[in-house]
Protein 1
Amino acid sequence: METIAVATQNKRVGKTSSTVNLGAALALAGQRVLVVDLDPQAQAGTALGRHLSGGDQRARSLGWAIQCRLQGVRPDVSEFWFDRSELVAGFGGAGSLHLLACEESTMNAVREVIHRKGYCATPVLRRMLAEVASDFDFTLIDTPSAVPSLSATAFAAADGVITVCVPEYASLKGAAVTRAAVRHVKDRTGGECDPRYLGAIVNRSHPPSAREGQEVDFREAMRDAGLDPFPADIRLDRRIGDSFALGVPAAIRFAEQAPGRMYGNLLGQVLARMRRCREGQGVPVRTGE
Ligand SMILES: Nc1ncnc2c1ncn2[C@@H]1O[C@H](COP(=O)(O)OP(=O)(O)OP(=O)(O)O)[C@@H](O)[C@H]1O
Ligand SMILES: [Mg+2]
């Protein structure tokens, strides 16, 4: 199983959309996929049509499972996930799609505990996922913006980390903070966790005709900031936002149209970079992929 975390300090740039659509594209390509929602806002669950509210649903939440584990109890992770494979069922050869769903109060409690215990507590999710590694080919983790303890937990669980920018200079800084944080994970976890930075998604981009030279500079600024943008960006597309609200990722609803093609292209580049990192070649910079 390979694990990818999607993170940046900035809000509303498309972390959740990127996570669920890349997960959907992987499932459509025949892979067994687990989406992990570490954001107390629980948006990945919404985007996959399974939103946990409080009450007795807390006991099915990832936050509850992590709390148990932090207290030394080993919950059976498979009892917590939701099978969302019905979303890709109509596609021949599709794989599977599961969700470890978040619920606000339990994940906020996790945030507090990890914040108190410090970096030594951050490998908790990695250890839980290791127990179900044979059930999945890929795990994608959605993270909150600006909650350092939960981002650190996602980085510790990840083999690769992707950040997300929108074509505005203000979004570079949050992504650069993420990239810098990834470099320190190995030291901070005593060598147990060693994620690689894979690159930055340019989300909500405009077509070349509308860029008027601006975005060329933006991509250049991303490279100068060491963010290694993926060549395939994700355009501003209403179908992506609408699908989020309907609980079925655009990469599935519009698999044969632009959203499906955009996420498919991006996925190919993400996997290629993961392969290069595994083989010790690192991420290509400035050259073609
Ligand atoms: N390429 C796109 N085209 C159109 N709408 C998009 C696109 N990407 C994301 N959106 C919409 O923008 C909003 C923010 O996206 P999303 O929730 O994925 O961002 P986020 O970074 O996860 O936000 P948060 O910081 O709240 O977790 C959502 O309503 C989503 O549907
Ligand atoms: Mg989000």
Note: The chain has one domain: 2-275.
Protein 2
Amino acid sequence: MNSPIAFQILNLPAHCSFHEADWFLLAKYWYPIARSVDVDEQPVKATLLDEALVMYRINQELVIAKDACPHRGVPLTLGKHDGEGVVCPYHGLRFGEHGHCNRIPSSPNQAIPSKLNLTTFPSVERYGLIWTCLLPQGDTDVPSMPLWDETDVQHVICPAVDIAAFAGRQVEGFLDVAHFAWVHSGTFADAGNQLVNDYHPTETTYGFAADYWSTVGNYPASEHYKGTPDFKWLRHFELHVPFTATLTIHFRHGGKMVIMNAACPVSARQTRLFAPLVKNFDLEDDEQAIIDYNLKIFEEDRMVVESQKPERLPLDLSLEAHIPADRSSVMFRRCLKKAGFGDFFLV
Ligand code: FES
Ligand SMILES: [Fe+2]
């Protein structure tokens, strides 16, 4: 009989770019792999932690499975849904509910062995995203997002953004408050407003939280909600180990906007960023305009994050220099280290 460890080692993806111990730890967390609106009956591909996945819907069920036909290993994302399941293009085996094989065209009268069923993973749809976990530990553990479930709010789910960089670097950039004036002066920040006020992240059960007060604002809002020149904006960050963060921006008169930065680690060097957004003001704002504005911000960040060296996020704090504005990124690295992560990268 296989021990759990032997079973897990057999399941390490081929060409895995992560250090083995880090991969097994990363695989226990939940990540978004697609927007719900982007997956219907036909098979859709995603990659999580170097594992190629296929997603398809059948009846009311969403199936997530390894993108490999159990017969001869052809990706099912090359196949087509015929109404009763996804048909593999090589010999026509069909996979339906629960990823079970329901047809062998060359032997239609033969009983179908369970060995022909797909290797499936659990799925949860939250914040307009499809979440999964490669090594589930029992409970569904999708990070929480403030404001999402309240009434009288506007939801926007930005299209995914592909970034040729490590998820840890991308998330650290989302938590960084000193780069606003330098990287985002084309969107929400003011190039002349460079000072970072003191702030103090506090550890939580899920990672850490930080409240950052500043006069950096200017996110488009109607007159009633937007700031005056001396208005202090509160940015409340919550980091969920390893790669999901939420930012709640407090506008005037109780206006709030929350953006989730949910980084899907496609591989050690590739990240797919998902960003659902919710706000409780100006509910009639044009959705496409909100998406365009946020994609512009992500593009400003992408160019920086893709340029960083080393590509991995050094958890040993002595390996990079830190300035007082980096309290959140230092805390982020401490949280990842405390959770047991190492160098992440294989090489
Ligand atoms: S490889 Fe898929 S049916 Fe043979
Ligand atoms: Fe940024």
Note: The chain is about 15% helix and 30% strand.
